[in-house]
Write a structure and sequence with these properties.
Blueprint: E1 4-5, E2 9-12, E3 15-19, E4 30-32, H1 36-44, H2 51-67, H3 72-83, H4 90-100, H5 108-134, E5 142-145, H6 160-169, E6 175-179, H7 186-198, E7 202-205, H8 210-215, E8 221-224, E9 228-230, E10 235-238, H9 241-250, E11 255-258, E12 264-265, E13 300-303, E14 310-312
Parallel strand pairs: 5-6, 5-8, 6-7, 8-11, 9-12, 11-14
Antiparallel strand pairs: 1-2, 2-3, 3-4, 9-10, 10-13
Length: 317
């Protein structure tokens, strides 16, 4: 398999590694993935995350497993387990199905070719989305984003955050407002880290401050990513996105969802059919004296198409 390199994943000289996103921004620690079991655990505990990236990571893991001499029985069993590692991001199922369950005969050459194509296609689609979305941003705009949708979540420049980065690269004077993204702080830990590395002016805010910020007319555009888009355009994204879209509608602020082709799930007619991952209560129950309090912890919510100004996807919706 050829060498591959992105912000959150790299494959060099037969060695597959992922950047442990649970350690950011305090430490940049790379985890070697010598066996698919390691990748399954990394996906489950969010050491590697972001819908496009976990799909590519699973595909590359399967390619490496095939190259290492896995039997067809072992290969398909691991593929099934990778596919089930997280339930909402359809990119994961799409990538595993493309590599392992497309109906083609199982050959190492075909598996490797499909995995490499998935990586390269995501890089190219990120470029398309970045250019398309950046054209919507005006010089001087305040741009709000939620969760992390940059290079840590994709193989390329990113989806929603890629749009923001490209606008900055084009010389547009923008200021980015970053929701912290409770409860796991993907905005505060990951998006803030990416923007700082890119030298893009930003301000971090708690999720429940966003509507007030809009009322002060500090926000001109909102860009978010997606983990699954239904046939009618309803989009699942990190919990808190739906409320953000409602506030944007009230304040008449354009609200854009940016996602690659692999995020589209035409098998589901509306967002009501999108499975929502429920994560451990302990992620919400902070501190040793609060573990007895019951908690509800959905990882995603669904924003109806009626609240979305436009879907920025390589295959136009």
């Amino acid at each position: 398999m050829k060498d591959l390199d992105s912000l959150g994943l790299r494959h060099q000289s037969g060695r597959l590694e992922i950047l442990d996103q649970t350690r950011l921004p305090d430490e940049e620690v790379w985890i070697e993935v010598p066996h698919p079991e390691v990748m399954i655990e990394c996906i489950k505990r969010l050491a590697v995350r972001g819908a496009p990236l976990i799909g590519a990571a699973a595909a590359i893991t399967l390619a490496r497993f095939a190259e290492d001499g896995a039997s067809p029985v072992a290969f398909f069993e691991i593929a099934k387990r990778l596919r089930e590692a997280r339930p909402t991001a359809v990119n994961l199922m799409w990538a595993v199905d493309r590599v392992a369950f497309s109906g083609n005969d199982f050959t190492v050459k075909e598996v490797v070719a499909q995995a490499e194509e998935i990586f390269d296609e995501d890089v190219a689609e990120c470029e398309w989305m970045a250019e398309k979305g950046a054209a919507l941003i005006q010089d001087g705009d305040g741009v709000l984003t939620h969760c992390n949708s940059g290079g840590l979540a994709t193989c390329g420049i990113g989806t929603a955050l890629g749009v923001i980065k490209r606008a900055h690269q084009k010389g547009k004077a923008i200021h980015v407002y970053v929701d912290e993204t409770r409860p796991l702080l993907q905005g505060a830990r990951l998006t803030a880290w990416e923007l700082t590395k890119a030298g893009i002016p930003m301000t971090l805010l708690c999720d429940n401050m966003a509507a007030h910020l809009m009322s002060l007319k500090k926000v001109q555009k909102i860009f978010v990513g997606a983990d699954r888009v239904a046939r009618n355009g309803d989009a699942a994204n990190k919990i808190g996105t739906y409320g953000l879209a409602i506030a944007a509608k009230y304040h008449q602020i354009p609200f854009y969802v940016v996602a690659p082709t692999s995020t589209r799930d035409n098998s589901i007619e509306t967002g009501l059919g999108i499975p929502i991952e429920l994560r451990k209560e302990s992620e919400v129950q902070l501190g040793p004296n609060r573990t007895s309090f019951p908690a509800w912890n959905p990882a995603f919510d669904v924003t109806p198409r009626s609240l979305i100004t436009d879907l920025i996807m390589p295959k136009e919706c």
